[in-house]
Specification:
Two copies of one chain form a homodimer. The first copy, chain A, has twelve helices and 20 strands. By secondary structure, the first copy, chain A, is of the alpha/beta class.
Amino acid sequence: MGLIVQKYGGSSVGTVDRIKRVADIIARNKPPEHRLIVVVSAMQGETDRLLHLAQEFSPLPDQRELDMLLSTGERVTIALLAIALQERGIAARSFTGRQVGIVTDEAHTNARIEEVQTERLEQALADEIVPIVAGFQGINRHSDVTTLGRGGSDITAIALAAALGADRCDIYTDVDGVYTADPNVVPSARKISRISYEEMVEMASLGAKVLQARSVIFAMKYQVPVRVLSSFNHPVGDRQDGTLVTKEGQEMEQESVSGVTYDRNQAKITLVGVPDQPGIAAKIFSAIARERVVVDMIIQNVGQAGFTDLSFTMPRGDAVRAKMALKKPMEEMNIQDMVVLDHIAKVSIVGTGMRSHSGVAAKMFSCLAEEAINIMMISTSEIKISCVIDAKYTELAVRTLHETFDLAREKGSKSSPAKAVAKKGHKKKSE
Amino acid sequence: MGLIVQKYGGSSVGTVDRIKRVADIIARNKPPEHRLIVVVSAMQGETDRLLHLAQEFSPLPDQRELDMLLSTGERVTIALLAIALQERGIAARSFTGRQVGIVTDEAHTNARIEEVQTERLEQALADEIVPIVAGFQGINRHSDVTTLGRGGSDITAIALAAALGADRCDIYTDVDGVYTADPNVVPSARKISRISYEEMVEMASLGAKVLQARSVIFAMKYQVPVRVLSSFNHPVGDRQDGTLVTKEGQEMEQESVSGVTYDRNQAKITLVGVPDQPGIAAKIFSAIARERVVVDMIIQNVGQAGFTDLSFTMPRGDAVRAKMALKKPMEEMNIQDMVVLDHIAKVSIVGTGMRSHSGVAAKMFSCLAEEAINIMMISTSEIKISCVIDAKYTELAVRTLHETFDLAREKGSKSSPAKAVAKKGHKKKSE
């Protein structure tokens, strides 16, 4: 008999009524051919509430104590959901991270799972109980509670799926899948029915918010098929397909580009007139790294007369720290000027098919040029191309790229193009 | 080096500011000659909030799930207090019931402690850490969270004090000690500086709310001296004495009566015209026990012509259930009538000295008679006498008994009568 792990995020269990709705979904759709494990997050807003409470006592609360505090949020949800399911006649039982044997390292507030001791979960499943598991938490070797950081509940669900050899991990969230682009920006954006781990990692890293890149990398490592579904427009009693994130298949290869993403949370610093000497870049980026700023793209222009310009991007919230960190090195190295731009955006196209399709980059650049959008920086990998542009062109760039790469048209084996076009009703271009 | 266990109740940690105040008390009064363990309850109102949340999902939530839910309240407080203490330079660390090795039986929501595995606490103390322990919770042999029921945090504190051989367990609450009577009713009521476990058990059972009888019995069993103190009018930087609950000492013997208590939460049922046959009482009280109503006082009047009247008292909230339970037995046994009185009160005097003082009961009855207060029922033990009276005379009875037994005057070895009288300033009678 198979096994499915379902995970419901904070917005899916954000209120009493939403928890009841989740209980209804589980009660009416419990896969008859599968056993079931449910992982839940804290009720939306609860983690923030607890964090603010802690900050009333200290601007920088101890991380072990934060974990003790924050881990209570998920415990509330598991108990409530277990009660709601029991009320619906399901033999559900709540389990903490410790009780399902999630052993982590010592890194409080951002722990990594080292081991999953599955005995208790296996016993519960053998007893035909539906375990309701607290996401986001584990226990370290000292028997102290740890939390797993951002996306932690997804990590819990994927880890349990991996440890127990589940058939699939279903991530219920507030959207019904992964789209070719943000549907708020591109009305013709199409839900992707299947996407490879590699593409999903890139899309998550490049701005698609539905999954954390970390979770996808984790799923890829253990080859756990992950399905993204909505707990909001889930028709109770019916099934939805969502998006399946899985290993690359034959049909995926056909497409050059799978999706367009954007990230407006970016800033760019340019150092002007950097002496072109060995070791300078190392000094600059060491200074920034000491402030724990993670630099994304880096470009060094070929300069004249022994000077170069150096540009790099980072999350916008880190720009001030980076600027401060550079003051002293700039003086020491006689760097002429520093220019900070924070109204920039990164627009990316992602697709495993790029590997076998030439001319994708050229097509992207011409497409942006046709709209007179200036490209400030470019970064590429095997399966993505990112361009930094002025933030005011973000929507225009995303829409025009979505159209150029014909993403609204459904391809692959699952559905005919005609159907997808008819469903959306505003696809103009055809190839 | 000695060891003190301090416990702070829900009202003492009910708000951010109160938690800060507790942190100040601990930081400034940390006994230099003692090591310290702090036990805390959930923030006032939190347990009720969680309980109501559970009841949104089920009128009768599963008790294991309730424990999972309710035990989060104390975890929030321990983390916050630990953070607050660290901010004040104290090496504090939070511990759950499980982490301090509180092993209980299986009775969810009302578990009994079976064992305390003290290794981790001893290690913390050896490392000069102040452990901040979640009260009210433990873990059973299946590694499931349990809670200890009413007064559970006091039980935790006393259990830790017993297991570690602490010198004393200090219970911080919203009153500064145990009084000879409720100071709201009797303005001249005097704080008792020392009281025996036996007297305190009676006083707690008979209506004094400062400690649960169960906690005092537990302290008595393990001979843990308990001190009751206030976290509200505690002069930071100074020491207060509170009330010490301890084993009976020489000086206590001198007093016949230590305190007056009352309990208005009482109801009385009288069965009129009960056939005077063997086995009738057993049938009646079995029927009531099946509804889990705990009967307090029972009086059977000698009747005429083969009939008797039977009266008994119970907590007022149980009267309706008791009445329902008796309907069928009444019919079966041809009992003539049932009269329910719910405007009654139980007024009691407590004192170990009663054993060696004759005439205490007579003095109590005459005192009430002088005020024309009718006594409906009487119940006595070695160290207490309780009278059931009409509830409207409660305050009058308590005041007049307090005066008759001269409780405002300080006796024993600690302080002179003159001082006590002068302090209160409204003591009239002297013997």
